[in-house]
Design brief:
Blueprint (H helix, E strand, L loop, with lengths): L8 H15 L6 H8 L13 H19 L7 H18 L4 H7 L9 H12 L4 H23 L5 H12 L2 H4 L5 H22 L3
Helix pairs in contact: 1-2, 1-3, 3-4, 4-6, 4-7, 4-10, 6-7, 7-10, 8-10
Length: about 210
Protein backbone atom coordinates (compact mmCIF):
# COMPACT_ATOMS: atom_id res chain seq x y z
CA UNK A 1 0.00 0.00 0.00
CA UNK A 2 1.36 3.42 -0.94
CA UNK A 3 2.06 5.73 1.96
CA UNK A 4 -0.45 8.61 2.33
CA UNK A 5 2.27 11.26 2.14
CA UNK A 6 3.02 10.11 -1.40
CA UNK A 7 -0.30 11.55 -2.56
CA UNK A 8 -1.09 15.20 -3.13
CA UNK A 9 -4.42 16.91 -2.62
CA UNK A 10 -4.72 17.21 -6.39
CA UNK A 11 -4.34 13.44 -6.80
CA UNK A 12 -7.22 12.86 -4.40
CA UNK A 13 -9.33 15.34 -6.38
CA UNK A 14 -8.56 13.60 -9.66
CA UNK A 15 -9.38 10.21 -8.16
CA UNK A 16 -12.65 11.56 -6.76
CA UNK A 17 -13.54 12.92 -10.17
CA UNK A 18 -12.93 9.51 -11.72
CA UNK A 19 -15.36 7.98 -9.25
CA UNK A 20 -18.04 10.56 -10.00
CA UNK A 21 -17.55 10.25 -13.75
CA UNK A 22 -18.03 6.49 -13.56
CA UNK A 23 -20.64 6.11 -10.82
CA UNK A 24 -22.19 9.49 -10.04
CA UNK A 25 -21.79 11.90 -7.14
CA UNK A 26 -23.77 9.72 -4.75
CA UNK A 27 -21.01 7.09 -4.98
CA UNK A 28 -18.38 9.49 -3.69
CA UNK A 29 -17.59 8.86 -0.02
CA UNK A 30 -14.33 9.08 1.89
CA UNK A 31 -14.33 5.30 2.25
CA UNK A 32 -14.81 4.85 -1.49
CA UNK A 33 -12.09 7.39 -2.27
CA UNK A 34 -9.73 5.79 0.23
CA UNK A 35 -10.26 2.42 -1.44
CA UNK A 36 -9.61 4.00 -4.84
CA UNK A 37 -6.32 5.47 -3.61
CA UNK A 38 -5.30 2.47 -1.49
CA UNK A 39 -5.25 4.37 1.80
CA UNK A 40 -7.37 4.53 4.94
CA UNK A 41 -10.35 6.85 4.54
CA UNK A 42 -9.14 8.75 7.62
CA UNK A 43 -6.15 9.93 5.59
CA UNK A 44 -8.48 12.03 3.44
CA UNK A 45 -9.36 14.22 6.42
CA UNK A 46 -5.79 15.51 6.23
CA UNK A 47 -6.77 17.26 3.01
CA UNK A 48 -10.52 17.81 3.26
CA UNK A 49 -12.52 18.78 6.33
CA UNK A 50 -15.59 16.91 5.09
CA UNK A 51 -17.29 15.66 1.94
CA UNK A 52 -18.63 19.14 1.13
CA UNK A 53 -15.07 20.45 1.05
CA UNK A 54 -14.14 17.65 -1.34
CA UNK A 55 -17.07 18.45 -3.63
CA UNK A 56 -16.06 22.13 -3.60
CA UNK A 57 -12.56 21.09 -4.68
CA UNK A 58 -14.06 19.02 -7.49
CA UNK A 59 -16.05 22.03 -8.65
CA UNK A 60 -12.84 24.02 -8.69
CA UNK A 61 -11.22 21.32 -10.82
CA UNK A 62 -14.05 21.49 -13.35
CA UNK A 63 -13.88 25.27 -13.50
CA UNK A 64 -10.13 25.04 -14.08
CA UNK A 65 -10.77 22.59 -16.93
CA UNK A 66 -13.31 24.96 -18.45
CA UNK A 67 -10.90 27.89 -18.25
CA UNK A 68 -8.16 25.82 -19.88
CA UNK A 69 -10.49 24.72 -22.67
CA UNK A 70 -11.36 28.27 -23.72
CA UNK A 71 -9.00 29.65 -26.32
CA UNK A 72 -10.15 32.96 -27.74
CA UNK A 73 -9.45 33.24 -31.45
CA UNK A 74 -11.82 36.08 -32.30
CA UNK A 75 -11.76 39.62 -30.98
CA UNK A 76 -15.46 40.44 -30.99
CA UNK A 77 -17.96 39.56 -28.26
CA UNK A 78 -19.83 37.09 -30.45
CA UNK A 79 -16.72 35.00 -31.15
CA UNK A 80 -15.61 35.09 -27.52
CA UNK A 81 -19.00 34.07 -26.15
CA UNK A 82 -19.26 31.28 -28.71
CA UNK A 83 -15.93 29.94 -27.49
CA UNK A 84 -17.00 30.19 -23.85
CA UNK A 85 -20.17 28.24 -24.60
CA UNK A 86 -18.36 25.60 -26.63
CA UNK A 87 -15.64 25.31 -23.99
CA UNK A 88 -18.14 24.73 -21.20
CA UNK A 89 -19.91 22.11 -23.29
CA UNK A 90 -16.66 20.30 -24.12
CA UNK A 91 -15.84 19.90 -20.44
CA UNK A 92 -19.36 18.96 -19.41
CA UNK A 93 -19.45 16.34 -22.17
CA UNK A 94 -16.45 14.70 -20.50
CA UNK A 95 -18.18 14.74 -17.10
CA UNK A 96 -21.89 14.25 -17.91
CA UNK A 97 -22.81 12.91 -14.47
CA UNK A 98 -21.64 16.23 -13.02
CA UNK A 99 -23.90 18.50 -15.05
CA UNK A 100 -26.81 18.79 -12.62
CA UNK A 101 -24.50 19.30 -9.64
CA UNK A 102 -22.45 21.82 -11.58
CA UNK A 103 -25.52 23.87 -12.44
CA UNK A 104 -26.52 24.15 -8.80
CA UNK A 105 -23.10 24.74 -7.22
CA UNK A 106 -20.80 26.25 -9.87
CA UNK A 107 -19.33 28.95 -7.65
CA UNK A 108 -16.01 29.74 -6.11
CA UNK A 109 -15.15 30.02 -2.41
CA UNK A 110 -17.92 31.36 -0.19
CA UNK A 111 -20.30 31.58 -3.13
CA UNK A 112 -18.12 33.98 -5.11
CA UNK A 113 -18.66 34.11 -8.84
CA UNK A 114 -16.28 31.93 -10.80
CA UNK A 115 -13.69 33.44 -13.10
CA UNK A 116 -15.68 32.04 -16.01
CA UNK A 117 -18.75 34.01 -14.92
CA UNK A 118 -16.70 37.15 -14.38
CA UNK A 119 -15.12 36.68 -17.78
CA UNK A 120 -18.51 36.53 -19.48
CA UNK A 121 -19.65 39.64 -17.61
CA UNK A 122 -16.50 41.44 -18.74
CA UNK A 123 -17.22 40.52 -22.36
CA UNK A 124 -20.80 41.77 -22.04
CA UNK A 125 -19.63 45.05 -20.52
CA UNK A 126 -17.05 45.56 -23.26
CA UNK A 127 -19.76 44.88 -25.85
CA UNK A 128 -21.81 47.75 -24.43
CA UNK A 129 -24.58 45.74 -22.79
CA UNK A 130 -26.28 48.08 -20.29
CA UNK A 131 -25.65 47.27 -16.63
CA UNK A 132 -29.39 46.86 -16.13
CA UNK A 133 -29.41 44.05 -18.72
CA UNK A 134 -26.20 42.18 -17.91
CA UNK A 135 -27.71 39.81 -15.34
CA UNK A 136 -30.60 38.98 -17.68
CA UNK A 137 -28.35 38.44 -20.69
CA UNK A 138 -26.02 36.28 -18.61
CA UNK A 139 -28.96 34.22 -17.36
CA UNK A 140 -30.17 33.56 -20.91
CA UNK A 141 -26.65 32.68 -22.07
CA UNK A 142 -26.00 30.35 -19.14
CA UNK A 143 -29.46 28.80 -19.35
CA UNK A 144 -29.05 27.85 -22.99
CA UNK A 145 -25.61 26.31 -22.50
CA UNK A 146 -26.33 24.33 -19.36
CA UNK A 147 -29.94 23.47 -20.16
CA UNK A 148 -29.15 22.19 -23.63
CA UNK A 149 -26.07 20.32 -22.46
CA UNK A 150 -27.96 18.71 -19.58
CA UNK A 151 -30.71 17.63 -21.97
CA UNK A 152 -28.25 16.25 -24.51
CA UNK A 153 -26.09 14.32 -22.03
CA UNK A 154 -28.55 13.37 -19.30
CA UNK A 155 -28.78 9.80 -20.59
CA UNK A 156 -24.98 9.40 -21.01
CA UNK A 157 -23.43 7.12 -22.08
CA UNK A 158 -26.54 6.08 -24.01
CA UNK A 159 -27.56 9.62 -25.00
CA UNK A 160 -26.55 9.30 -28.66
CA UNK A 161 -28.21 5.94 -29.24
CA UNK A 162 -31.28 7.16 -27.38
CA UNK A 163 -31.60 10.24 -29.60
CA UNK A 164 -31.02 8.11 -32.68
CA UNK A 165 -33.89 5.80 -31.74
CA UNK A 166 -36.10 8.80 -31.08
CA UNK A 167 -35.28 10.43 -34.41
CA UNK A 168 -35.81 7.19 -36.31
CA UNK A 169 -39.15 6.81 -34.60
CA UNK A 170 -40.33 10.19 -35.85
CA UNK A 171 -40.64 8.76 -39.35
CA UNK A 172 -40.03 12.16 -40.92
CA UNK A 173 -37.62 12.73 -43.78
CA UNK A 174 -36.03 15.67 -41.98
CA UNK A 175 -34.59 13.31 -39.37
CA UNK A 176 -33.75 10.39 -41.65
CA UNK A 177 -30.20 11.36 -42.63
CA UNK A 178 -29.36 12.57 -39.13
CA UNK A 179 -30.33 9.21 -37.66
CA UNK A 180 -28.30 7.06 -40.07
CA UNK A 181 -25.52 6.33 -37.59
CA UNK A 182 -24.57 7.19 -34.04
CA UNK A 183 -21.72 9.28 -35.43
CA UNK A 184 -24.14 11.31 -37.54
CA UNK A 185 -26.32 11.88 -34.47
CA UNK A 186 -23.32 12.95 -32.39
CA UNK A 187 -22.24 15.38 -35.11
CA UNK A 188 -25.79 16.69 -35.32
CA UNK A 189 -25.88 17.29 -31.56
CA UNK A 190 -22.79 19.51 -31.66
CA UNK A 191 -23.81 21.34 -34.84
CA UNK A 192 -27.27 22.02 -33.45
CA UNK A 193 -25.81 23.33 -30.19
CA UNK A 194 -23.46 25.73 -32.02
CA UNK A 195 -26.27 26.77 -34.38
CA UNK A 196 -28.57 27.57 -31.48
CA UNK A 197 -25.90 29.45 -29.52
CA UNK A 198 -25.03 31.53 -32.57
CA UNK A 199 -28.66 32.45 -33.16
CA UNK A 200 -29.21 33.20 -29.49
CA UNK A 201 -26.28 35.59 -29.33
CA UNK A 202 -27.34 37.33 -32.52
CA UNK A 203 -30.83 37.68 -31.10
CA UNK A 204 -29.33 39.34 -28.04
CA UNK A 205 -27.45 41.76 -30.27
CA UNK A 206 -24.06 40.16 -29.65
Amino acid sequence: MARPQNFSKEEFVRAALRIVDAEGLEALTFRRLGAEMGVSYTTIYTYFKNRDALVTALMGQLLDEIESSIQFEGEDAHAKLMEVGLGIRRVMAQHPLWITTFMSTATGPAGAASSVTLGVVSILEAAGVPQTDIARVYRVFEGYIMGTTAFDFSAAPEHVSSRRRRYKGYGHVAFRDVAKTEKSVSTHNEEAFAFGLDRLLRGLGL
